[in-house]
Amino acid sequence: HSLLRLYTQRRDKLDFKPRTAQSSPLAIEELRMALTQRRFVLHYQPKIDMQSGQLAGVEALVRLTCNQYQIVFPNDFIPLCEAHGLIDDLSYEVIRLAIEQQKRWQQAGLDTAISVNLSAVSFANEAFSGRVMQQVGELGDAAKQLIFEVTETAIIQDIGKALSILTRLRLSGCGLSIDDYGTGYSSIKQLSQIPFTELKIDRSLIEGVSRKAHLQVIFESTLSMCNKLGLKVVAEGIEKKSDWKYLAAQGCHIGQGYYYSPPMPEEDLLRWWQAGMPALS
Ligand code: C2E
Ligand code: MG
Ligand code: MG
Ligand code: MG
């Protein structure tokens, strides 16, 4: 379990002192510098096809490297980037890194889809759409191997703008995923306007599902709805074997979580895949 400890250690174990947008205008300069210095890296968490046991893809999760031993997690810098106009540039960088990664893994024999998280703050910027479409356009057919995740609350804030960019991405062949489903206040009517290909049920509705009747009702009805709509269902943040077993038996399409594997740096992900994708637990 040392791998799990290593990749899930939180900021309290690190020397880095996160600052909030209010308390320090300097921190954003550090982030800007980190971007030009290319110190953002991606870790990758496997998504497992629960029915076949095969690799369904990986989710790219951004981290900031401070030095060899310190990394900063996204919850400590994404809000700051969003508040100070740096999020679009960070997204271009994350997309660039993911595309480069895909090529490197392909050379090693691993051909897999990568999911990238987008911030809905970017949807307000017209130029964002154009620049991302350019990055995606260069991929041609390989755009099918790229999935964009957006949280449901984010979409609803400005459904018109979200609809415009997300539809363009979908038409280019990319997958579209509703992230953290069940935590926001989206209406199914609004969500159904956007051509999503996947729905990720939030961890808070997954934890303990094997023994909590109300979570089972929510899961089963969500799965049934998604099956009828042709959406893949991903259960996020599965930590327990009992929950994994339950979800797989109910017909859940894809599972993701510490039970199977934490997010890993590129070399570790490759080694794990070469070793036959063993479950951690
Ligand atoms: P998310 O997209 O919902 O990603 C899932 C988060 O849950 C990740 O945290 C992941 O490491 C963590 N996780 C995965 N499995 C488990 C589990 O079994 N148990 C628990 N307790 N946690 C689990 P992380 O990497 O700290 O990312 C947090 C959030 O930051 C992400 O939530 C996403 O909204 C955002 N984020 C990450 N990378 C990016 C990015 O490149 N761009 C943007 N805009 N946001 C990002
Ligand atoms: Mg996500
Ligand atoms: Mg999520
Ligand atoms: Mg989340």
UniProtKB/TrEMBL annotation:
Keywords from the UniProt entry: Phosphoprotein
Q: Does the keyword Repeat apply?
A: no
Regions crossing the membrane: none
Q: Which residues form the EAL domain?
A: 24-277
Which domain of life, per UniProt? Bacteria
Protein name in the entry: EAL domain-containing response regulator
Native species of this protein?
Answer: Bowmanella denitrificans
Interval of the full protein contained in this chain: 120 to 400 of 400
